[in-house]
């Protein structure tokens, strides 16, 4: 992802944008991820952790 052309580039503090999952106070990356798309453009914004109920 190119942060210069992404809407995420407009974030005032990009360090607050997390793509891992917060579970029980811990950030977990998980073994699987899925894409999050910008509905306005259809472009990929990020890939995020895909965790199941376990």
Strand content: 25-35%
The first-to-last residue Cα distance is: 30 Å
Low-confidence stretches: none
Question: How many E strands?
Answer: 4
Largest sheet: 2 strands, antiparallel
Could you tell me the mean pLDDT? 87
> What is the H/E order?
EEEE
Measured as a percent range, the helix fraction is under 10%
What value does the Rg take, in angstroms?
13 Å
Shape: flat
Count of alpha/pi helices:
0
Structural class: mainly beta
Strand order of the largest sheet: 1-2
Description:
The protein is mainly beta. The strands form 2 sheets. Strands 1-2 form a two-stranded antiparallel ribbon. Strands 3-4 form a two-stranded antiparallel ribbon. The termini are far apart. It has strands at residues 21-23, 26-28, 33-37, 44-49. The chain is built from no helices and 4 strands. A hairpin with a 2-residue loop joins strand 1 and strand 2 (26-28).
